[in-house]
TrEMBL record:
KW Phosphoprotein (keyword) present: yes
SUPFAM superfamilies: CheY-like
Record's keyword terms, sorted: DNA-binding, Phosphoprotein
Any Pfam family: Response_reg
Protein name per its UniProtKB record: DNA-binding response OmpR family regulator
Amino acid sequence: MRKRILIADDDPGIVDAVEIMLDFYGYQVSSTYDGNDVLKLSEYPDVLLLDIWMSGCDGRDICKELKANASTRHIPVLMVSASKDIAQSAIQSGADDFLAKPFEMEELLLKIEKLTH
């Protein structure tokens, strides 16, 4: 069965590129430009790729909420950000891993592979 990945990022260029690449590698990909949508999901992904700074919300707050909820705390969260300096705060908010933008697709694939096994 194909692993499901949800991308929550308000940058359409990144979402499109990552969706195409992950689909090519056999993942089932969905996306949202609004991080608040993540908290309204009825079906959860195998991995959440979550941008830290999105218009209207902070990915770290979303991550904290997911990790505080018994039904969603098991979802691996890979946080991404253009700021390399906030990796520590991403991990402190409960993220399972962090990736600084711009990133190499190979590095993203390796991290997703690690989080899904």
